[in-house]
Amino acid sequence: MPKLPPPPIPPALKPPPKRPEEGNGKLTPLDTAAEAGTSVVNWVDERTSLSGAVRWMMFRKVPKGTNWFYTLGSATMFAFLSQAITGVFLAMYYRPDVSGGAYESIRYVTNDVFLGSFVRGMHKWGASVMVVLVFLHMGRTFFFGAYKYPRELNWVIGVVLLILTMTMSFTGYLLPFDERAYWATIVGVNINGTGPLIGPYLSDFLRAGPEFGATTLSRFYAIHMMLVPGLIAALIGAHLYLVAKLGTTAPPWLKAKQDPELKKTEA
């Protein structure tokens, strides 16, 4: 049976020919690929107008004195992305089974899966790195006074992100379901139960019942994999939007220079 010929390249994706002085009008394969990529980007941008949003986010003014302390937020976001990517790969092998399936799936990933130990190590230690970075970022924000007007809402979002990060660490600790994870989680849930008003209800919610069981591990897995990461991703988006809209705060040791025209007006 004869094969059908491949469809022709759309005219919009074909690069325009070079001028005569540029290689006599001949295009190399690399030039063709570059021009095709540019045409695709232009085609998408014409229909979505994303270039304006990208320029608004990336090419904005920053205050004088911006230093490496201002990269802690980006480092925290990178740590979250690393946790999300490695978590997806671990979820492909994980089984939330209290009868031994959870522990065996973790053991299988660590010992038998190609690069499984590396991915699990990145996820395990990346959780600690993310917690440390969140605290450093909030400390920088506090000591630089970046929580003041008009950035109060962004500070509140950051506090919620800190709580969600701690929640994700707490729920992920139980997932290997070994002796240490089991008893440490019992202690953590009991501590939550001592809180005023909502403490007992929070403990019942986390246990998914009056005592630990199969549904407890499933609930922790659902919170760790779906609920908390979704909330964190949404709040990071809102956080970045407010940072781009309101700008960043200059270091407190720098004072703004007064405009000479304002001095004349005051005089």
Q: How does this model look, in words?
A:
The chain is mostly helical and 267 residues long. The protein has a domain at 72-246: Cytochrome Bc1 Complex, Chain C (Up-down Bundle). 65% of the residues lie in helices and 0% in strands. It is built from 10 helices and no strands. The protein has helices spanning 29-48, 50-58, 72-91, 101-111, 116-143, 152-173, 179-193, 199-207, 214-246, 260-266.
- C-alpha termini separation: 92 Å
CATH domain fold name of the domain at 72-246: Cytochrome Bc1 Complex, Chain C
The CATH architecture name of the domain at 72-246 reads Up-down Bundle
SSE string, helices as H and strands as E = HHHHHHHHHH
Please compute the radius of gyration using only Cα atoms: 26 Å
Number of helical segments? 10
Largest sheet: none
Helical proportion?
55-70%
Question: CATH superfamily membership of the domain at 72-246, which one?
Answer: Cytochrome Bc1 Complex, Chain C
Shape: flat
Q: Which secondary-structure class do the elements indicate?
A: mainly alpha
Low-confidence stretches: none
Number of strands: 0
CATH class of the domain at 72-246: Mainly Alpha
Strand content: under 5%
Please tell me the overall pLDDT: 87
Descriptors:
10 helices; flat; Cytochrome Bc1 Complex, Chain C; 267 residues; mainly alpha
Question: What is this structure's SSE topology?
Answer:
Layout: H1 29-48, H2 50-58, H3 72-91, H4 101-111, H5 116-143, H6 152-173, H7 179-193, H8 199-207, H9 214-246, H10 260-266
